[in-house]
Amino acid sequence: MSPPPSRDPAHDTFPKLLLRNAAVRGARVAMREKEFGIWQSWTWAEMAREIRCIAQGLAELGVARGDKVALVGDNRPQLYWSMCAAQCLGAVPVPVYQDAVADEMAYVIDHAGAKLAVAEDQEQVDKLLQIRKKAPGLARIVFEDARGMRNYDDAALTSFARVREIGAAREAKDAAWLDAEMAAGRGADASVMLYTSGTTGQPKGVLLSYDNVIRTAENAIAFDGLNETDEVLAYLPMAWVGDHIFSYAEAYVAGFCVSCPESGATVMTDLKEIGPSFFFAPPRIFENILTQVSIRIEDAGAFKRWLYRYFMALAKRVGIALMDKKPVAAADRLLYALGEFLVYGPIKNVLGLTRMRLGYTAGEAIGPDIFDFYRSLGLNLKQLYGATESSVFICMQPDGQIKSDTVGVAAPEVEIKIAESGEVLVKSPGIFQAYYKNPEATAAAKTDDGYYKTGDAGFFDKDGHLKIIDRAKDVGRLQDGTLFAPKYVENKLKFFSYVKEAVAFGHGRDAVAAFVNIDLEAVGNWAERQGLAYASYQELAAKPEVYDLIAACVEKVNRDLAEDPNVAGSQVRRFLILHKELDADDGELTRTRKVRRNFIADRYGPLVDALYSGAERGHISTVVTFEDGRTGRIEADLAIREAPRFAPARRVELARAG
Amino acid sequence: MANKGRVIGDTLLKVENVSLGFGGVKALTDVSFDIRKGEIRAIIGPNGAGKSSMLNCINGFYHPSAGQITYKGQVRKQMRPHETAAGGIARTFQNIALFRGMSTLDNIMTGRLLKMKRGFWWHCLHWGPALREEIEHREHVERIIDFLEIQAIRKTPVGRLPYGLQKRVELGRALAAEPDLLLLDEPMAGMNLEEKEDMCRFILDVNEEFGTTIALIEHDMGVVMDISDRVVVLEYGRKIADGTPDEVKSDKRVIDAYLGVPHE
């Protein structure tokens, strides 16, 4: 079944939207990049010219309709342009995670059959040159930043500047040819191929059509009232569907401006300078920002600390009600206004969120404390639920109906069904075409009547808001048959700033046990204030005091779990603190930083056994991979703690009454 | 290492029979070696061997009591540090010598000072030619910031930076002077492994990209053997070996100097 076309049939592809924007708002700034410390900008008209030259250049290099073009690098305007340039020619851009190691990259590029790759710099070029044996189809590599590549003489290499130059010459001669190419694209054509991060097995290439992406973007723009005056900072991986929708699709459809940060390390500074009106970040970024704020407040003087605490308490009490336009006492309104002047305003300014009209977070559950912190400051932060396969949007939170533990109601034109297994099924204009070269997986991911199986388990609450508890296949049962959703427990643990990652076990066992990863920054800072000396992550993680700290968190989680009869059985009985941070390079996390539970259970088998054997310590020896591919071994002897558990009070009473 | 395409040219600086004494202490005795254009030349030796004294002689801070130094084909007279700087020699220091209260950007900007033509009052005016000049120099400094990948700390006071980054800023300031000869006094002292690897990469990049001749003092043998073209070894103010890393490594006197000689 094909999705409905975009609402503007004359502009049903990105190249056509580009030409429309250049004609309608040619003088508006479309893109910015900080170069040599100064923001450089390109208007829609200039950007259209750039993209046309690049498209002509790529055509000269042999890129033709149906080809795949890999894009490897950080968020750079040139890479976004190359994306559109490829689409102008009818080729399909394939953005690749820039931090992928060579092997992972080889799989994606070979599977996609990319003939040409546009790489950001020497680092990426080195990787691409290295994988050419495994991806023999890759015939040409275009590089943007020539630094350090003076002595590279591989025949496959072409500089971006050169591509633009030959493109400009061709454009001067035959612009009509490109006009025809751009006009030849249809809404039903493949627009982009995005590889899933591969939580299970090899990554899958998700093919999205222009109709998928553009129609979905149109709906989302209407839902949130975005327009050409909005500002976005593009800093999340280009290979991720969220960035593709927010920094590319919505920008082209609504005509707003996208800014690229100077480098990954400068995002916070750039954020402050740009002051985006529309900001998207996974929960961990919001968490990091909050951790930074808390740490700096702890280091401030006594008066400032008091001021912060007083006004944050006030914000917590009335801030959210104010934003939801609920009645608030006049005195509180006045105090809140004072707080805005003294505390909230300055905080928002430092974080670069002063102009933020709309913020989204998705990908993982966000802690209620963190969520409420931002909302109480008057920032309209919302959650959404989505997937690569659905061009992001499945559920969105309408203004005024925000709850921290649900993901909102169905997005426009989205139908949601809950299967008997508890799995969430979705039908929407954004549902993907197919997994590339993988019909079995495509068939397995869609029902006969065209619903996409999200693989997530969830249910609707009484207000019709969807609540996601875990991956459907991960929801297990304890030996006594009680429901066990590991992620639900892990997320509750992760809501504490001291806990970076958690892994819960329990399926088929008599109780729940957990691994905890401490957050080096938060716990390190705490240790400093306690006067605890430590030399390494491993040493800090093994401190009895740190165990006490985490035990208190686990206790609170258990108390919390005990309140809900559905999950009271999932209380954590025993836990340990891991001696190393879980890392995507070791395969323990996916590239989007989700824990790979089974892999971890396997790798740390002896520790899992120790958790269930009643032993007081567990021994483990693990192999770690360094960035250059060498491996090393870490040995550790870890303490195991019992955590207090609480009686699920209500259910016991009900059981007695029954 | 991607060293192809590098050209090692003629002699840039020649040290002939240089001796230096402080009262009764002889810091250097009869040392001779040369530095060729485009090479990375290391000066190594145990503590107190006279390495820093040698560097100080080269950049004009000390004046040798005997012998002569020829730079760019000219025998150097009594020369003061700022004259050597104007002559194209820049250096970094063993114990970082940055302006701690100033930002990274301003610190590197100071490296351009000798290249600025307008005077103090012009710059107070901050207008016309002075402004144009500042923009031109700022652009150069921004290229260095980009090159050394320190954009994120552009506006941070250097006193707040970790040690490894301060070293990088210092390298940036030396580069700002667009030197022909760059003297690095223990660029990797006190760094952790990762910082050392980064610094190595930057030193090689500077040499490769800008063709800058580099003379460095370093204690970390691994680093020295990896990145330098030729090594001169000093002990008690005397030269005991001079050659490629491999030659030096197998030299008996060098091994003795570093590991000690067994006493019967």
Radius of gyration of chain A: 26 Å
Strand content of chain A: 15-25%
Which CATH class of the largest domain in chain B is shown? Alpha Beta
Query: With helices defined by DSSP (H or I, 4 residues minimum), what is the helix count of chain A?
Result: 22
Largest sheet of chain A: 5 strands, parallel
Q: Strand content of the residues of chain B, in percent?
A: 15-25%
Number of strands of chain A: 28
Q: Order of SSEs of chain B, N→C?
A: EEEHEEHEHHHHEHEHEEHH
- Classify the oligomer: heterodimer
Mean pLDDT of chain A: 89
Low-confidence stretches of chain B: none
Number of domains of chain A: 3
State mean pLDDT of chain B (0 to 100 scale). 86
What CATH calls the topology of the largest domain in chain B is Rossmann fold
Concise synopsis of the structure shown:
The complex is a heterodimer of chains A (658) and B (264). With 658 residues, chain A is of the alpha/beta class. Chain A contains 22 helices and 28 strands.
What does it look like?
- The complex is a heterodimer of chains A (about 650) and B (about 260).
- By secondary structure, chain A is an alpha/beta fold.
- Chain A has three domains: about 10-270, ANL, N-terminal domain (Rossmann fold, 3-Layer(aba) Sandwich); about 285-355 and about 355-470, ANL, N-terminal domain (Rossmann fold); about 475-655, 2-Layer Sandwich (GMP Synthetase, Chain A, domain 3).
- Chain A is about 40% helix and about 20% strand.
- Chain A has 22 helices and 28 strands.
- A five-stranded parallel β-sheet of chain A has the order 4-3-5-6-7, sandwiched between helices. A five-stranded mixed β-sheet of chain A has the order 12-13-14-15-16. In chain A, strands 24-25-26-28-27 form a five-stranded mixed β-sheet, sandwiched between helices.
- In chain A, a hairpin with a 5-residue loop joins strand 27 (about 615-625) and strand 28 (about 630-640).
- In chain A, helix 12 packs across helix 14 (about 370-375).
- Chain A is globular.
- The two termini of chain A are about 50 Å apart.
- Chain B has about 260 residues and is an alpha/beta fold.
- Chain B folds into two domains: about 1-90 and about 180-265, Rossmann fold; about 100-175, no CATH class.
- Helix content of chain B is about 35%, strand content about 25%.
- Chain B has ten helices and ten strands.
- In chain B, the strands form two sheets. Chain B has a six-stranded mixed β-sheet, with helices on both faces. A four-stranded antiparallel β-sheet of chain B has the order 2-1-4-5, covered by helices on one side.
- In chain B, strand 4 and strand 5 form a beta hairpin.
- Chains A and B meet through loops of A and helix 5 and helix 7 of B.
